[in-house]
Design brief:
The protein has six helices and no strands.
C-alpha cells in the first residue's frame, strides 16, 4: 500500500468496525449510545467477523476484499438506509435516534464506496506503473539499441583449462 488514501481508508474501516462492535455490545446489554442500535444482533456479529478478512484483503490490495466489503455493507446498511429515507419521504417525524442510525448507515455505505473506488483506481495504476526514476532506463528502447550497437565485441579471451 503506497497511497496515503489507502492507509486512511483502512484506518477508517478499522475505526468503523470498532464502532459497530461497541454498538453491538451495547445493544446486547441494553445500553443506550445516543439511540444507535444494532438492527439484527446476530447478523451484526456475522458482519463483524466477515469484515476482518475484508480489511486484510484491502490492505493487501485485493479487489475481492473491497467488493465483498461493499456488498456486505451495502446489503445490510443499505437496506436500513433505504427504509429510513422512505419513512422520511412519507413525512414521518425524525427522532434523534432514527437520524443518528441513518447517519451511521450513510457513513457505512460511503466508506464502502470509497474503499471500492480507491481499489479500482489503484488497480489501473498497478497494471501500468510509472516510475520516473527507472523508466528512462528500462523503457528506453533507443538506449537499448545504442548499447547493443556499442557492445558488439566478441569474447577474445583464451581460456585454458588444466
Amino acid at each position: 500500500m503506497k497511497n496515503f488514501s489507502t492507509w486512511l481508508l483502512a484506518i477508517f474501516m478499522v475505526m468503523f468496525w470498532l464502532f459497530r462492535a461497541i454498538v453491538a455490545l451495547c445493544t446486547q446489554y441494553s445500553v443506550d449510545i445516543l439511540g444507535i442500535v444494532a438492527y439484527n444482533l446476530n447478523i451484526e456479529i456475522i458482519i463483524a467477523f466477515l469484515t476482518i478478512p475484508c480489511i486484510v484483503f484491502v490492505i493487501r490490495r485485493k479487489l475481492v476484499g473491497s467488493l465483498a466489503y461493499l456488498l456486505i455493507y451495502g446489503l445490510y446498511f443499505g437496506n436500513h438506509l433505504f427504509n429510513g429515507i422512505i419513512t422520511m419521504v412519507q413525512g414521518e417525524a425524525l427522532t434523534m435516534e432514527v437520524s443518528l442510525n441513518l447517519l451511521s448507515d450513510f457513513v457505512a455505505i460511503i466508506l464502502a464506496l470509497f474503499v471500492f473506488m480507491d481499489m479500482l483506481v489503484d488497480k489501473s495504476r498497478k497494471a501500468n506503473p510509472i516510475d520516473k526514476k527507472t523508466d528512462w532506463y528500462f523503457k528506453n528502447e533507443k538506449y537499448d539499441e545504442e548499447l547493443n550497437a556499442r557492445d558488439s565485441r566478441e569474447d577474445k579471451n583464451q581460456y585454458k583449462f588444466y
